[in-house]
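Subject: Sanity check before I submit

Could someone independently write out the structure tokens for this chain? I want to compare against mine line by line before I put it in a report. The sequence has 290 residues.
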Amino acid sequence: MFVTAYKRLRLPLLVGIALAAFSGISQAEHSWGGYHWARTGNPFTLKLGDNLTSLDWKNHLAASSSDWNSPPSGATTPLFTAIVGGLSTKRTCSMVKGTTQVCNGKYGFNGWLGLASINITGGSHITQGAAKMNDSYFNLSTYNNTNERRHVMCQEIAHTFGLDHQSEDGSSQNSCMDYFSNTGANATNSDSTRPNAHDFEELNIIYAHGDSTTTVAASSATAPSASDVDITDDPNSWGTLMRQSANGRSSVYERFNRDGSRTLTHVYWTFEAASRCPSCDHRFESHDRN
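---
Independent answer below. Compare away.
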């Protein structure tokens, strides 16, 4: 009788332990649609093409690359980054197969601070990426500080790894993959400027499986991709709005290309753009500063 009672108690206890363990394993849930670079083993190295035009931005790229290469004690990463010479121009930031190209420029008062694009083949494989920082806004006092620049740089390059946001409500998870804003009273606050343990946990989940092929450049690529997979200065080139955060600061767009691939773009909007109409597609709004 004691054995029977023990078995009855033991079963839900074991189930609870198993569920708790599973919950811990899957706690980080901010993959961007399951998109990932194909590779034949871990860890692998993703090359970041430096097309940046100022020492300040170059320093932020170097710091963010170092942060993503430095998981916290006890954690591991399947993905390392290496900064290489850029192969694009700051204006177009054309994607280059097997790499992420990183650019800055005065892209205009069009409502966005930063954006990241990835080209997808085979349903989920990233083949190339681009990350752009908009100096038209970063040169303004509202956004022109070290912590906001580093936050956005860290986040935009990580979108090209296949990561999404941990939070989009403006709260700080102390991860650059949240939408805390290091502006105004928070301009001197360095929270949310680096990845945290959950970001590395998610990377390990995304890259836990194996692939039989690779889309990662083994050496520095030599030429930009075909222009029809890139986005342009025309926001209509982003394609269809797929989703937008409740506060209007984050949008994802998708475009189908003639070669059968898809280009997806994460857009980080300014406070000003989001506050006018959080539910609107900000591409079709006026962002005139006069």
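---
OP: Matches mine. For the report I'm noting this point. The chain has a mean pLDDT of 89.
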